[in-house]
Specification:
Layout (H helix, E strand, L loop, with lengths): L3 E5 L7 H12 L4 E6 L5 H9 L5 H21 L4 H23 L3 H8 L1 H16 L4 E4 L18 H16 L3 E5 L2 E3 L5 E3 L5 H11 L4 E6 L20 E3 H9 L10 H7 L2 E6 L7 E5 L8 E16 L9 H11 L4 E6 L3 E6 L14 H8 L3 E15 L8 H9 L6 E4 L5 E7 H16 L3
Parallel strand pairs: 1-2, 1-7, 2-4, 3-4, 7-9, 8-10
Antiparallel strand pairs: 5-6, 9-10, 11-13, 11-14, 12-13, 14-16, 15-16
Bound molecules: adenosine-5'-diphosphate (ADP), aspartic acid and magnesium ion.
């Protein structure tokens, strides 16, 4: 059996009409037997607000009401089938219980269980939409197979366990039914609910595809593929027909929100092709991410990652000494922080923190404890208000004239940090957040909109 895993993002399952369009896509491809859904658009954001310490009772009730409205509107259009209505009622009352529990005890495990309820609602509803169209379909609790560690908020998937569990519990169902399951969520060994970090449904789809050795993963979203830059930033951005795993991984890592940064890893491990397209306009086609591609241009795309933190570490210990970087990185590793960009001088190290794995509930990565630990062996300065702009392409480190072209465009802007040379696929600059959109637009115009 050739298997395609289709993932539908928040806007694709936002309401009954959107779910119907997605159901047509699924039923139009007999190989599409496993569907992974995000929470309906806006629901995870509301759930995150429910986890915030500052929320009061009125705010809490208002959020719960908003979520119920989104989900019941879909249920109503389905004609309120009893089983789905009962499942939804149960999930929504659990939401109320958990959000209240957080008022007295702020537990990360409770937060993750609360955040997981959006995907649980949308998967129950989407399976019902498929059944309404005559398909044999049911919702499947992904926590039975998507095993993670217990790092609530950004749990690490356990790939071997996921493969074993998926083959045992999920695979046998796929020959009979179209199974709808949840993205973004998992469970640890003790059965406690975990989440993979914001945008994690793409990653879930790729992990399940890997576990079941699927032939393709389809990421259905609100844009017709991966564009040369975020089409919201540059109206002339255009979709890329085919892109390599390496380039797509760099794009996702450096902020192209269309794909969660980790999505590519399972696909690369199993050489599974990934397709990105629009569930609103499937006829427009989209982007195929493959191992081998025909065209490998020097400039492929520009990505933007906002809200960057720069850590400046100063220590005279670095002067003609060894071990300072090792000590610094060991401290960061203990706090589960991965470093993104790095530049060094004789007595300074500047680095940006990789926020791609940041917490589902939006908590910052820089804790007081980490800063204190670092301060024990160096002077620490933290700079915020920065954005990372990455130019993605091929042979960037070995083609003459690239920096000249890029820096000509950047002339009116202060470049706080530059990274180039480690990868043939990118050149990154750190600029002020306030100028970032302008920088992306100007780079796109110059590098991609020329005659
Ligand atoms: P979903 O809810 O379907 O997962 P997301 O909002 O996470 O969708 O991702 C889709 C969005 O990603 C698009 O609406 C677009 O604004 C943004 N985006 C950022 N960079 C790119 C890019 N290079 N190509 C396409 N979309 C991009
Ligand atoms: N619903 C989650 C989020 O909004 C996961 C996802 O959509 O990928 O982050
Ligand atoms: Mg997404």
């Amino acid at each position: 059996m050739s298997l395609v895993v289709a993932k539908f993002g928040g806007t694709s399952v936002a309401d009954y009409g959107a779910m119907n369009r997605c159901a047509e896509i699924v039923l139009g491809n007999p190989d599409c037997r496993l569907v992974v859904v995000s929470a309906s658009s806006g629901v995870t954001n509301l759930l995150v607000e429910l986890t915030q310490e500052s929320i009061n009772d009125d705010g809490r009730l208002q959020r719960l009401k908003q979520i119920a409205q989104i989900q019941y509107a879909i249920l109503d259009k389905l004609g309120r089938p009893n089983d789905v209505a009962a499942a939804l009622d149960k999930l929504l009352s659990r939401m109320a219980v958990l959000s209240e529990a957080l008022v007295s005890a702020r537990s990360k495990a409770t937060m993750d269980e609360l955040l997981s309820l959006g995907e649980q609602c949308s998967s129950a509803l989407f399976a019902a939409v498929l059944r309404e169209k005559g398909a044999n379909s049911s919702a499947f609790d992904v926590r039975r197979v998507l095993r993670t560690d217990s790092h609530f908020g950004r749990a690490e998937p356990q790939v071997e366990q996921i493969a074993l569990l998926s083959r045992e519990h999920l695979l046998p169902l796929l020959s009979e039914q179209v199974i709808v399951t949840q993205g973004f969520i998992g469970a640890d060994e003790a059965g406690q609910t975990t989440t993979l970090g914001r945008g994690g449904s793409d990653y879930s789809a790729a992990l399940l595809a890997e576990a079941l050795t699927a032939s393709a993963v389809e990421i259905w979203t609100d844009v017709a593929g991966i564009y040369t830059t975020d089409p919201r930033l540059a109206p002339n951005a255009h979709p890329i027909a085919e892109i390599s795993f390496n380039e797509a991984a760099e794009m996702a890592t450096f902020g192209a929100k269309v794909l969660h940064p980790a999505t590519i890893l399972p696909a690369v491990r199993q050489q599974i092709q990934v397709f990105v397209g629009s569930s609103k306009e499937p006829e427009k086609g989209g982007t195929w991410i493959r191992h081998q591609v025909e065209d490998a241009p020097v400039f492929r795309a520009v990505a933007l990652r906002r809200d960057q933190t720069l850590l400046n570490l100063h220590s005279l210990q670095m002067l003609h000494a060894q071990g300072f970087l090792a000590e610094t990185f060991a401290t960061l590793a203990r706090h589960k922080i991965s470093v993104d960009l790095i530049t060094t001088s004789e007595v300074n190290v500047s680095l940006t923190l990789d926020k791609t794995g940041s917490d589902s509930s939006g908590q910052g990565l820089l804790s007081e404890a980490l800063l204190q630990e670092l301060s024990q062996h160096c002077r620490v300065r933290v700079e915020d208000g920065l954005a990372l702009v990455a130019i993605i392409g091929n042979r960037i480190a070995t083609t003459a004239g690239i920096c000249r072209r890029v820096f000509e465009v950047l002339e009116p802007h202060n470049v706080r940090m530059i990274c180039q040379g480690a990868s043939p696929h990118n050149l990154c600059v750190l600029v002020a957040e306030s100028e970032a959109a302008q920088v992306v637009k100007a780079l796109h115009e110059n590098l991609f909109e020329g005659a």
